[in-house]
Amino acid sequence: DAKTTQPTSMDCAEGRAANLPCNHSTISGNEYVYWYRQIHSQGPQYIIHGLKNNETNEMASLIITEDRKSSTLILPHATLRDTAVYYCIVAGNNRKLIWGLGTSLAVNP
Amino acid sequence: DAGVIQSPRHEVTEMGQEVTLRCKPISGHDYLFWYRQTMMRGLELLIYFNNNVPIDDSGMPEDRFSAKMPNASFSTLKIQPSEPRDSAVYFCASSYGTSGGSSYNEQFFGPGTRLTVL
After folding, report:
1. Which of A35, A46, A48 to mutate to test the interface with B (most CBs of B within 10 A)?
2. pLDDT, tens digit, for every residue of A7-60?
3. Beta-carbon-side half-sphere exposure of residue A53 (alpha carbons within 13 Å)
4. Is any Cβ of chain A less than 8 angstroms from the Cβ of B104?
5. Is B93 on the interface with A (CB under 8 A)?
6. What residues of B are in contact with residue A32 (Cβ under 8 Å)?
7. How far is Cα B87 from Cα B58, in angstroms, rounded to an integer?
């Protein structure tokens, strides 16, 4: 599975959009981009995934570049409850997710 | 649905003791995963099952660790004998086998068991 690179930490003001980048330059054609988050002391929570088209759900939007080598997770109006570690994972149709260290997002009042 | 249920939530034991962690997956899910999370190594997949059968146990650290899934609604992870380096948070997750399209890797996690081995 392709490896991903994320910034270690980011800050965002409450009510503003949080844009979390992820690089996955070695992604292959059948691999999807998945985003999870882990709020302190809880289990990880699935957010969204995509192959090549942009995706949106009630939690977030996922923007994938045309060459698929990078993506951005967008939380349109961040709240204090969005403070968490965000993981970008690239995976194919197998079931094994390889977890990096993620981005620690702090949403500040 | 109550989500993935794990017990106990906290376990403190002494080195050399046997530890058993329990997991009840979401009803209807046919994949079950055991993970371990530490500050040093992050989140690691230990083993996963499909339809109660172990598919990949390459992440199990050593013979002291064993996992079973006797039926679709219950799984255990056992450590015998336990060592201080086994201290970690252990998560269980479950997912659908065949979902519509691409959601192969949408996994639902339990709250975890925090294990401390003294």
Report:
1. A46
2. 999 999 999 999 999 999 999 888 999 999 999 989 999 999 999 989 999 999
3. 3
4. yes
5. yes
6. 102, 104-105
7. 20
